[in-house]
Amino acid sequence: MQLSNFLELEQTTTLQDVGRVQNAVSTQQGYLDYINQDWAYWNDTYNFIEDRNQNYSNVNLQNQTLAGIKVNVMLFVNNSGSLVYAKSVDLYTGKEKPIPEKLLKMIEDGTLRSKSENDKKSGFVLLDENPMFISCHPILTTNYTGPMRGTLIFGKYFDDTLLNNFKETTRSSLLMYRVDREMPPDFQIKLDDLSENPDRTIVEPLSEDKIAGYFELRDISGNSALILRADFPRELYLNGEKTLNNMYFFLLLTGLMTGVGVKFALDRLFISRLIGIDNFVTRVRSEKDLSKRLSLKNNDELYRLSKEINGMLNEINLVEQELKAQEREKKVLLDSLNELVIFVNPQLNIIWANKAALEYMQISLEKAVGIYFKATSEIDDPLSDNLQLEQIFVTGNKKSGEFTAKDGRVWFIQAIPVTGEDGRIIGVMETCRDITERKAAEKFLQEKQIAEAANRTKSEFLANMSHELRTPLNSIIGFSDLLYEQAYGELSEKQLRSVGNISKSGKHLLNLINNILDLSKVEAGKLELDYKEFELASKLNMIKNLLSPIADRKSIQIEIDMDSNLTSVCADEARFVQVMHNLVDNAIKFSYENGLVKIGARKKGDMVEIMVKDTGIGIKVEDQDKLFKPFSQVDSFFSKQFQGTGLGLSLVKQIVNLHGGYVWFRSNQEEGTTFAFTIPIKGNK
What we know:
The protein has 685 residues and is an alpha+beta fold.
């Protein structure tokens, strides 16, 4: 009887250990289903099936993306069965691999394609290289609405690395064999039994010191695919058998001692102690109190028997504590989740809830256990109001969806049926995850994409309008210059001033349009540089001579200080002149009369550094962040005295950046400003 109890306890313990292995495999399949559903119910995926937007694949379907979500194969199939997009990568190297031919054939014959909006498939596919976890989901919108546009298929190899991971996680020895290949005899025998009872776990001893549990994994069509065996040591049974053998030995010894005529008083004492031991074992079994121990008296056989029984109880107690520790680990794991987790029975009474769910419901576990899930006032949406849990007990299908609570938070809810050993549904596990931030991020991304599209449209519009305006402006400037030169006849002094103002205003407006055109080209990525080698000194002197008449009006001197080892640079000559003209013109514009503007050039490694320093009004600290921004001007009393569009410095920065350089400045109010930039001496071709 005692030995049968140990065998029964060993059977139960082994089933629980095998259950941990099955849970690990189910968790991997559940993760793949969850990730697949998250992608399949996404507006961007829904649109990609229709328009095959290259931006979607460039952003979302990179090799590192698949490696990051631990997916080997990603297949997009439309409703007609055509493959829209396919990618296969090696998770360990990140390199692309060919798509397995068997998967492509299963798409053609419809095995992996969803037939309706609720047709979801998961399981295994036996490929030539390795078995593969497969998850197939219909492609719907983010709101889980149709019509369905196709099927999204995710696959992950069940290779030796993943098998070793399961071994480490479950602390067990695992063997796996495919049903389509040769396997050991014990696996072949179990295959026939498991095929008739797919949800069954077969537990049987392998040897005197090892016991094994066999279970089956099914493919995507519900047929046998893999047989797994988990091996565990028979420590509990061996210790129990040893203890019972000792007990039998001592009982036999007692009978022999009685048969040869041991003294009656000693017989009474011995039998009374045996009865005491028997009563003790019976009491421990009935009360299930493993903390009790036999008192040890005398150094005889019964003493050793009692000691062995106490040792057996210690080991059983340790096993029980380990089981309790495992239960505590599961509870700690579930309590550590941010998701709300609730388990209900077929009567929709709460059996268990994790810490996050209890805090959300504002109720303790003791009060929550046993109450009707939907009747209690403490349970508010989204937990109880959105998923019809009763249907799950009828259909056996899991349900999920996104819902918005009264407080505005968005939740992703999933209800999964939990089955017992006989295959009947014993409860439903409901999880609820707050995805408000993710939804906000998706909305922000959409708005950002809209803004970027609007910005590109703006740049194209400005470029087109600039071209449309330049042609009539050139005509206005040309004819006004001819009138000013009195090519068509003499004009009065008043007429000459008016015509001069027309020419001056037209040139100012043309300069503004040219700047806008350049800026829009940069933003649209269409500004190309024409590199050529030119003498740096001659270009700096040209800028000085060009702007000297403007400087002379304010009695400002322009000085050039240039390293002797600098001769020529390779850059876009016209754009270099444009940058220097803007910087020197600004320095003259914002300098006081009788001031000094210094132009410096020195070699800095492979770069040339150009500086323009003035002794002018400087820039306030609060205005410095406006520099280099298009259409922005510093808000000071002095700057209001001068005309400007706010485009010059922005163009300077963009042109320098295109050359592979960078721009910086330093300024103190009333002490002047220094602008500097660097570009490669030999160009950035």
